Amino acid sequence: MSNHVRITEYLDVDLDSEMWCCHKCGAELYSARENYKKGCLLFDRDPRTLYAPATGPRSPIAPNPEWCRYIEFYCPKCAALIEVEVLPPGHPLTWDIQLDLDSLHESASTRGTDE
Ligand SMILES: [Zn+2]
Contact at 8 Å (CB) between 113 and 78? Predict the structure, then answer.
C-alpha cells in the first residue's frame, strides 16, 4: 500500500517512492525532490482565449499576450488541471512547492493509527 500525503487539492506525495502523484488518479508525476511541474503536461494559453466569447475574442480586459501567458499544468494520465500560473512569455517555470521530505517521513513515522 502506498504512503500518500496530500499536499494540494490535486497533488500528493508518495513517501515510499518519494514521487509527486496526481491526487485524482494516483499517477506518478516526478521526483518529490524536484519541481512537480517537470512531470506535468503544459499548455501555454493565450490569455485572450479565456475571455471569449462573452466579451469578444479581442476583449479589452484580456491581458496582452505579449506581456503575460497562462501556463496550465495537467496530469499526463487523467488530464486533471493541477496548477495555473501567469508568467511573462519565456519566463522559466517557478518552483512553488519544495517539500521537506525528511520532516514528512518523520511525522509519518510518529503518526498514530487513529488517523
Ligand atoms: Zn491524474
Answer: no
